[in-house]
Fold:
Amino acid sequence: MKKFITSILMSLGIITAYNTNAQENNTMENKKILVAYFSATGTTAKVAEKLANTLHADLFEIKPEHPYTEADLNWQNKQSRSSIEMADRSSRPAIASKVEDMAQYDVVFVGFPIWWYREPSIIDTFMSSYDFAGKTIIPFATSGMSGIGDSGKNMQELAPKAKVLTGQRFSSDVSEEKLKSWAKGLF
Ligand SMILES: Cc1cc2nc3c(=O)[nH]c(=O)nc-3n(C[C@H](O)[C@H](O)[C@H](O)COP(=O)(O)O)c2cc1C
Structure:
């Protein structure tokens, strides 16, 4: 009898474990995911590639129409392009190409380097360029050391009909496993 009860409990355990896995997979697999990113010097690009790979998501690079030169990125020079853009909240640097059929995506991860404690102006261009109604937007960033700050709040203002999460800053060598477990907890 004891053996019988044990075997029933065991099979229930297996069934529960099976259901949990099935639900997790369903949640992830039923969503169409895009990982869009801007990266001036390649750090965020690597994180974005890992994230897209581990989530089996589509990947889109937010390429500036005019690429940033080293001089443009000089944050110590108040007259550099990045300094001028970041000092003007209405700045919207042009993007070279558009996401084909944004409507198909349920979840859009948006990656960028932190510039002056927030999202670069070209991310504001991206957020202003599409109808994100009903979609979940998840910011992620790399930086020297700053956190993601108010980037999510700023992006929410530009896409009021989307649900924009706070997001997360990662170090440049973050693992795929870490990215996956972070992403899984979000939707
Ligand atoms: C114009 C500019 C401003 C930056 N501002 C910050 C900042 O406020 N805090 C920080 O920790 N790092 C800052 N950084 C460093 C970048 O966030 C960091 O190097 C990032 O990982 C670069 O990513 P990327 O290679 O994808 O462009 C700044 C870099 C630039 C070029």
Q: What stands out?
A: The longest strand covers residues 107-113.
